[in-house]
Design a protein that fits this description.
- By secondary structure, the protein is α+β, with helices and mostly antiparallel strands.
- It folds into three domains: 286 residues, no CATH class; 115 residues, no CATH class; 60 residues, Arc Repressor Mutant, subunit A, CATH 1.10.10.
- The chain has 15 helices and 16 strands.
- The chain is elongated, with a radius of gyration of 30 Å.
Length: 476
């Protein structure tokens, strides 16, 4: 491919505060329209904003976690534009003196680890929400004034896949910090993407378009895939790319023109006269930094070192904080981290995906899983029996030892019973016996499967394999 894709992302994050960023109105989601408003968030003449201290603390928490340089002095500005859901006709945001700048977030691609630079992190207020009907549009101002943190990356991503990896890595960090519920369906996490195309080797960026209306990370990836192809096709046809804002049409999986792209001068930024400059004290930032938990990247490195997990396994497990905490409890109880990781990423993950639940809602205590794994280790049950047992434990919450006794699932230890099952399998499958004698070693595995069927999975497959080989060596 002779073209290079260049992508930068703007993430808007709703912060976990009980009241709005410049007034005392509630931020609860789902209330009746226009019931969480006041003169301040509706922009009535004479009303004055007061900064929510917690929103500032949470913003600083994110900036520190993203290795940003926190500003010594921050100011708020008025971003002027007209839109029906913007009651004041301007948005209180930050322009030339934002909360933080020059950070970095690492992503793991198939090839290597890649650093994505963070250009800036700043605070602003949200707008209202429009509801379009057949012959009219309605506005709910409940969301107007909710605290947002905007995280702007540099154009360091060179594929839709890298953009997807960046978003998942960023969301993981934000969930560890507990600064937002990151719920895209409720609008707590929103993303706009800037994308341009240039010839490989060129230093200058191409004409960019901004894409909006993407309500999932997969949607972001799909929109970028379409838009990159659209831009390349235009260049290949000798046509010009227009700088504009485009909407992603989810149903048609295409991007469509929305409006011409605005630049900073179009918004006529000027300092917010009703808010003073804010200065950070060193001990304020120091206390925030002390309260930051172990984040995904250092946790991944620790899991690789302490639990001997592969880079892939560790990355998957730490991507979700609840999963990482669950794994660590089980690993300490059971003593074999790799076995725990295999079950967590295999059968347990499949069950959760199939039933649409997350691990914090899974009815499987670490003690129950560890107990089941210990029974496999000691030979009480087989791995095959454990797979069935796992579902029963989750559904009933019963202790695995009690379930094994209740259902009579203990591994067969009676050698006579095993010998009978082996003899029957050999007698009924003479073709496999012949195949084995002709050098087809896999024929033994077929016979092992037949024995396991006859014993309803209660035989030890390794023991059965050993007995079959002895039996077949002596067979005429």
């Amino acid at each position: 491919m002779s073209y290079e894709i260049v992508i930068g992302l703007e993430v808007h994050l709703q912060l976990n505060t009980k009241s709005k960023v410049f007034c005392g109105c509630s931020t609860d989601f789902g209330s009746a329209p226009n019931t969480q408003t006041c003169p301040v968030c509706l922009g009535f003449p004479g009303s004055l904003p007061v900064l929510n201290r917690l929103s500032l603390e949470l913003g600083a928490r994110v900036a520190i976690a993203l290795n940003c340089q926190i500003a010594k002095e921050i100011r708020f500005d008025r971003k002027n534009y007209f839109y029906p859901d913007l009651p004041k006709d301007y948005q209180i945001s930050q322009f030339d003196q934002p909360l933080a700048q020059r950070g970095v977030l690492n992503i793991i691609t198939d090839e290597a680890e890649k650093k994505i630079r963070i250009r800036r992190v700043h605070l602003e207020e949200d707008t209202g929400k429009l509801f379009h009907q057949k012959d009219s549009s309605l506005i709910d101002f409940n969301r107007s004034g909710i605290p947002l943190l905007e995280i702007v990356s540099e154009p360091d991503m060179n594929s839709p896949e890298e953009a997807y990896l960046y978003l998942t890595a960023l969301k993981s960090v934000l969930e560890y910090l507990d600064v937002s519920d990151c719920n895209m369906e409720e609008g707590s996490l929103r993303c706009d993407a800037n994308i341009s195309i240039r010839k490989k080797g060129d230093k200058e960026l191409g004409t960019k378009t901004e894409i909006k209306n993407m309500n999932s990370f997969k949607g972001v990836k799909a929109a970028l895939e379409y838009e990159s192809k659209r831009q390349i096709d235009l260049l290949e046809d000798g046509k010009r790319i227009i700088q504009e804002t485009r909407l992603y049409n989810v149903e048609r999986c295409i991007t469509e023109p929305m409006r011409s792209k605005e630049e900073a001068h179009d918004y006529r930024y000027f300092p917010e006269p009703d808010l003073v400059p804010f200065y950070f004290k060193e001990d304020f930032l120091r206390d925030i930094e002390k309260g930051i938990p172990e984040l995904p990247e250092p946790k991944r490195n620790r899991f690789i070192k302490d639990y001997q997990l592969s880079n892939y396994d560790a990355a998957v497990i730490v991507s979700d904080k609840d999963t990482a905490d669950y794994f660590e409890k089980c690993a300490r109880l059971h003593g074999n981290p790799k076995t725990v990781a295999n079950w967590l990423m295999g059968d347990i993950s499949a069950y959760m995906k199939e039933n649409g639940i997350v691990i914090k809602n899974l009815n499987l205590k670490p003690e129950r899983l560890s107990g089941m794994l210990r029974m496999i280790d000691s030979g009480v049950i087989t791995g095959k029996i454990a797979k069935t047992l796992l579902i029963e434990i989750i559904k009933t919450g019963t202790d695995p030892e009690e379930l094994v006794k209740e259902k009579g699932l203990e591994q067969i230890s009676d050698i006579n019973l095993l010998e009978n099952a082996v003899d029957e399998a050999v007698a009924e499958n003479q073709k496999s016996v012949v195949d084995f004698k002709n050098g087809k070693d896999n024929a033994v595995m077929f016979l092992v499967g037949r024995v396991m069927q006859k014993t309803k999975g209660r035989a030890n497959p390794n023991k059965v394999n050993e007995m079959l080989r002895e039996k077949l060596k002596g067979a005429k």
